[in-house]
Write a structure and sequence with these properties.
The structure holds 2 protein chains of 2 kinds. Chain A is an all-beta fold. Chain A is built from no helices and 11 strands. The chains are: A mainly beta, B mainly beta.
Amino acid sequence: DQQVKQNSPSLSVQEGRISILNCDYTNSMFDYFLWYKKYPAEGPTFLISISSIKDKNEDGRFTVFLNKSAKHLSLHIVPSQPGDSAVYFCAASPFGNEKLTFGTGTRLTIIP
Amino acid sequence: DSGVTQTPKHLITATGQRVTLRCSPRSGDLSVYWYQQSLDQGLQFLIQYYNGEERAKGNILERFSAQQFPDLHSELNLSSLELGDSALYFCASSSPIAGGHTGELFFGEGSRLTVL
């Protein structure tokens, strides 16, 4: 049972444009969400997070939006840069629980 | 550099064999997590230790076991290996934040296991 779903395995975006990566979840107990970025031959690195008490969190070029009623979150990258080309994982955890459940990832390619 | 060290980086072995993967967490982190990433799959949670004690268990096979030692390093033991066990095995560490959430996990570079 995939509780965190990233339905787009890959996404290509022109440099300078907006990249939007989507994530859906099914477990209503999840209340903390994170995005991780992974380059080849490296471990995932933390990018940005959001708590369920918020609907938006921004950090520089990266913004995460959370729609609790739809059980959906998205990561916006503006403007997209070639260095953003990587695999992006969405992850979630329930309140008071340290275990993160990850999605299957979306491979983002920024076209120069 | 995340501060999490995993060894070995690459390992090739045969079916039926046993291997041990090692992880040293970031200085000060008490929690260690093991994740498996098979081809085209997400990160599957295997097991978590906190300060030497097992804290949570995920989809870990009975052929797999782990432990966390007093110096907080952890080992993942994989036995009776099968072809399907070929994967990237990641270790991560963290310190809890408010609300009991993990917050940010710091991942090692992974150990790539190939079973032939």
